[in-house]
Amino acid sequence: MKKARNKFYSVYNSIIIGLLGILGLTTSSCEKLGPDPVAEYGVPSAKFIVNGKVEASADNSAIENIRVVMRQDTAYTDSEGKYQVIDNYGSPMSQDIEIKFSDIDGANNGEFNNMDTVVEFKNPQFVNGDGNWYEGETSKEFNIELEKK
Asked: How is domain 45-146 classified at the architecture level of CATH?
């Protein structure tokens, strides 16, 4: 009885393997689209750039050494209060991106309150995309004023 069952399973497995082999040869994992198709796998992405200037609200003077954090990027304002932060792997659609401004140098240039805010990218227009998964980059200027403590 055991030999008959083993023979049955052997024939059954051979039939299944043969059918799967035929199906595998007759299907295509990537359909060809257009005259010169390229099979790609990935996720659409885009670069979001925020730059601007940080000033004191009392006299509009530039504030140096303010830490600016946006997602994975951190920057510090220069002597003119200018900064730039970049999100290299954003999703290419409208986004609200949180940015944190922190006074980290103590009393060196005055003490200022920290600020958490949101930069809105509504219907962003991207440039310099590669025509595939990378949609390109978009930028926004975002100036702020910090109040003294």
From this structure: Sandwich (2.60)
